[in-house]
């Protein structure tokens, strides 16, 4: 009947959407740079059919990913799991961000604790007044470098 057909159609659409979602997360073993959803290679077509068969058999997404990884290796998945082999891949962005943050903090710290002012304080035996400190810092700290963006480079090129 009509309701049964609509229900079957909705179920088929949901299964198809689930299969496409899984296929987008699986790398084509022949192409390497495409998901099996985007690839028309023979192996991609077979893998898409395998995924649909597994969904039809009642497997969960996780079970399907595990089966694919067991049969084709962990490189078949776009999101590798965290282990000793992939630790560098996962930790590199964190290490770069941490190093950059540490460098910025150190740079700001260096600007605030100027060695020349500390030396003058020691020689005089009395701390500089805030006005003296500002005057000396204006003399000793070089001006900031010009901006290095594309617009500033273009302006400099125009002023030649």
UniProtKB/TrEMBL annotation:
InterPro entries the UniProt entry points to: CcmH/CycL/Ccl2/NrfF_N, CcmH/CycL/NrfF/Ccl2_sf
Domain CcmH/CycL/Ccl2/NrfF N-terminal: start-end pairs: 10-115
Location(s), subcellular: Mitochondrion inner membrane
Location, primary (coarse class): mitochondrion
Record's signal peptide: none
Regions crossing the membrane: 87-106
Coiled-coil ranges (or none): none
CDD domains (UniProt xref): CcmH_N (cd16378)
UniProt keywords, alphabetically: Heme, Iron, Membrane, Metal-binding, Mitochondrion, Mitochondrion inner membrane, Transmembrane, Transmembrane helix
Record family assignment: Belongs to the CcmH/CycL/Ccl2/NrfF family.
Name of the protein described by the UniProt record: Cytochrome c-type biogenesis protein
Lineage, broadest ranks: Eukaryota, Viridiplantae, Streptophyta, Embryophyta, Tracheophyta
Annotated gene: A08p040250.1_BraROA
